[in-house]
Design brief:
It contains 27 helices and six strands. By secondary structure, it is mainly alpha-helical. It has two domains: about 300 residues, Up-down Bundle (Na+/H+ antiporter like fold); about 120 residues, NAD(P)-binding Rossmann-like Domain (Rossmann fold). It is globular, with a radius of gyration of 27 Å.
Length: about 600
């Protein structure tokens, strides 16, 4: 296929006169096929698809002519749909659990990181404007990469997972003022502060207009169109809203990209969000692939070779500076130990929004194509290295904790300081220890409470602990995988321990601590996947419950009952299902 693509490309650009008016179709074919190859290579290498798109765009840009105006227009549509969908995927409701930490922590991180990067880039000899734009771009992290890594490890609901997602949402929202700032920065002559004030006033006016469109007019139109039961009309309406908002915002002097992102944000928490997202997703994926291939195509390959050492140094500095800044933010808001180390290390890469910022700055004439290429090269390199860095974050935390054992000053940052803040629960015996007061833990506690069974909750979430305290429940605030915290729950005198935390690595460490303290205590744990259940059984957990499998059992039971099967027959079938699901394989560590 690659050979066919090269031959086809050669025929187009050497026999241009034969193709005539089909030039645009040929170009689209090449770029779509390139997108497919780049995406396929990225999947094989377990990278994000857009990394493959950019790399193959760079490869094609080295031998194809750069003056393909038509594909730039299609790529601009891709950028608009990309930012529209990124705005749609924002969920402000996710910030509620850690609102204070997410908002203030996110703002502190962005400001500190930007200032430090600005100073570093000035020391490297870059101009003030270039240093400022690169610094802002480097301060952002990748929502797509981080969420993928967290979901693969089952850590989205963990403490560090919630922190990371919260800060990423704040960073995504920060793109709006950043875009306004870039537009004001591009204004030549006059008073820059006056220009910024004028752009900000226009921005507030635009936000008001888009809110009016997105919250009042669009829902009405969607309900009307939905009555025709036509997906085509709903798709057209969604695209018109995205492109129309982008056009409206552009009339006020802002970029199309800013308008599209704002349109998505406005309806991100509305009921219409899901319908719009579902209809535009396929079209978005097609044009976004074109956008990233075109982005790579427009880069200057010689920058990668000529500045390879500089790119490497900048990537290493970005990892180091962002790690330290995020660590400082964690410590400031009372997050220490594993949550602080893993969340700080997981957000060290440069995000996909940086590509938009650098390309927009280039279009506005703020930076040259060579400098835009340098910024994108640094961002791309950090994204490729990010999964490797995150993979060893847990190992780094364990080594740092081990290294700090004889250094009291460092040890307090490696372990939970909450171990000294919990009130003495008195002598406990025959109680149940519930680790995690989330969706699963709450139901377990509710059942125990209704039966009058004494129990203690261990959790790291302040809101969950506050909620439990208000109900008069015994609680211990801290990381359950910290041996000192779990000792405070008096595991040795308990009847059993229920592990309802989703963090797989924390589960395993907690089980080891429990078995060291009291080898005979019964342990019950949850696991989402079969391989996780195998690992837990290997660690001698008495009972492993898989929520998805239990849901399947419940559905099967209901279906068989609806088909008129007798209770003994249903029980027999369920018993067979459970027997066939029993896992006895050895785990692959």
């Amino acid at each position: 296929m690659a050979c066919l693509l090269i031959l086809y490309t050669y025929s187009i650009f050497n026999y241009n006169e034969v193709m005539g008016n089909l030039g645009l179709l040929n170009i689209i074919f090449i770029f779509l096929l390139a997108s497919f190859l780049g995406g396929l290579a990225a999947r094989i290498l377990k990278l994000q698809p857009f990394v493959g798109y950019i790399i193959i765009g760079i490869l094609f840009g080295s031998f194809l002519p750069k003056d393909l105006i038509e594909i730039d227009k299609l790529a601009e549509i891709g950028a608009i749909l990309l930012l529209f969908s990124l705005g749609l995927e924002l969920s402000l409701s996710k910030l509620q659990r850690i609102l204070k930490v997410a908002v203030w922590g996110g703002i502190i991180q962005l400001v500190f990181s930007s200032v430090l990067f600005f100073i570093i880039l000035l020391l490297f000899g870059f101009s003030q404007v270039l240093s400022l734009i690169l610094a802002i771009g480097f301060s952002l992290s990748s929502t797509a990469v981080v969420v993928k890594l967290l979901s693969e490890k089952g850590d989205l609901e963990s403490v560090h997972g919630e922190l990371m997602v919260g800060w990423l949402l704040v960073q995504d929202l920060a793109v709006l003022p950043i875009m306004i700032f870039l537009t004001s920065l591009s204004t030549r002559g006059g008073n820059w502060f006056l220009s910024l004030a004028l752009m900000s006033a226009k921005g507030f006016l635009i936000i008001g207009l888009v809110v009016l469109l997105g919250r009042l007019i669009l829902p009405y139109l969607i309900h009307k169109v939905a009555s025709f039961n036509s997906r085509e009309l709903l798709l057209l309406l969604s695209v018109i809203f995205a492109l129309g908002t982008a056009f409206l915002v552009n009339l006020f002097g802002f970029s199309f990209a800013l308008g599209a992102f704002l349109a998505g944000v406005v309806i991100s928490d509305s009921q219409e969000k899901h319908a719009v997202f579902a209809e535009t997703r396929s079209l978005r994926d097609l044009f976004v692939a074109l956008f990233f291939v075109t982005l790579g195509f427009s880069l200057i390959p010689s920058v990668f070779i000529k500045s390879s050492f500089l790119i490497l140094i900048l990537v290493l500095l970005i990892f180091l500076v962002k790690f330290l800044v995020f660590l400082l933010v964690n410590f400031t808001f009372g997050y220490y130990g594993k949550a602080a180390i893993i969340s700080s290390l997981g957000l060290t890469q440069v995000g996909e929004f940086s590509f938009i910022i650098f390309s927009q700055a280039n279009l506005l004439g703020l930076i040259s194509p060579e400098n835009a290429s340098l910024g994108i090269a640094v961002a791309l390199s950090s994204l490729i290295l990010s999964p490797i860095v995150f993979k060893y974050s847990y190992t780094l935390w364990k080594r740092l904790k081990l290294a700090a054992e004889n250094r009291p000053f460092l040890l307090k940052y490696m372990l939970s300081p909450e171990r000294n803040k919990n009130h003495n629960l008195g002598e406990l015996s025959g109680h149940i220890v519930v680790c995690g007061f989330g969706r699963v833990g709450k139901w377990v506690c509710k059942a125990l409470e209704s039966l009058g069974i004494d129990f203690v909750i261990v959790d790291y979430n302040e809101k969950a602990i506050r909620e439990a305290k208000e109900k008069g429940i015994k609680v211990i605030y801290g990381d359950a995988s910290d041996p000192e915290i779990i000792k405070q729950a008096q595991v040795a005198s308990s009847k059993c321990v229920v592990i309802a935390i989703p963090d797989k690595l924390a589960q395993e460490e907690l089980i080891t601590h429990i078995q060291t303290i009291s080898p005979n205590v019964k342990i019950f744990a949850r696991a989402h996947f079969d391989e996780d259940a195998v690992r837990l059984r290997f660690l001698r957990v008495d009972k492993v419950v898989q929520p998805e499998f239990e849901a399947a059992i419940g559905i099967v039971s209901s279906v068989l009952s609806a088909l008129g099967k007798s209770n003994p027959e249903i029980k027999s079938k369920i018993r067979n299902l459970r027997r066939s699901h029993t896992i006895s394989e050895e785990p692959s560590f």
